[in-house]
From TrEMBL:
Naturally occurring in which organism (per UniProt): Achromobacter animicus
Name this protein carries in UniProt: Tripartite tricarboxylate transporter substrate binding protein
Keyword line: Signal
Highest rank taxon of the organism: Bacteria
Signal peptide, first to last residue: 1-16
Family membership noted in the UniProt record: Belongs to the UPF0065 (bug) family.
Amino acid sequence: MAALCGAAALAGTAAAADYPQRPVSIVVPTTPGGTADILARLIGPRLAQRWGQAVVVENKPGAGTLIGADYVARAKPDGYTLMLTFNELATLPALNPNAKLDVENGLARIGKIGSLPVLVLTRPGIDDADLATLIKRFRAEPGKYTYASNGSGSSLQLFTEIFKREAGVDVMHVPYRGALEASMAAIGGEVDLLVQFASGNVINHVKGGKLNAYAVASPQRLEALPAVPDAPEAGLPGLRLEAWYGLFAPAGLPDDIKLKINRDLNEVLAEPAIQERLKGINLLVQPGTPAEFDTFFRAEYARWSALIRTLGIKSSE
């Protein structure tokens, strides 16, 4: 028996040493142009250089990232189908009670990449002096104003519903296909409010006057937007939101391959050129082990599931 166990361990080590032997696919369960897509197209080529194999990014959007996540969960757990996604994954079961995907047990956690803070924004033309004045505007005419999200049951809807609860306002939901489309809707004046990831593109829109920023939904200001108050300064100390990103694989991925991908991912994230690019999109890099990411994900899953039940939000897809 000991000999058999030893042989199995050696076989696993050899498999990891030989991995990958053909192209690897990174599925992004959103439309092109969003932060998850940007990260996959930034990290993928660096992994390809290390592995000597192509890394292909595939966008599979729909149903609040459910379509892409379900596709990956059904794939063979051999390391050739990965997924780069974000915090929305932790909300899928609560939002889609009829979905068969088990995000806790159907997907392996490889490693956390990092997180983005969240901004409270409005379209051009709403030029209130501060968040308190903006909230007074919304309270004065309940149901008149609108907000954009990247779909019913999406992260941006959840973020905004939390903002509405903290601020005590009634703003109507207008879902769009993706986060990029939601931003463009606010820039174009189609909607009034946007609670959005503080990505490099969004920050550039604020600096360029295309969006107005009223608060950072966290206890700290952003270095990139030093004049924008944090949530406690703006009068909403309970508003704490972030968008995190990580790499996943189908459940059953051998531990040695999981650890190899994690190690290579962390080495890519430590490269000075990558660090500079990630700083440019305002991502706080947070590498770690698969076990650390697994613990983090399970806590996020429990937190968001409870919150969604409290708010009574359901996906329309």
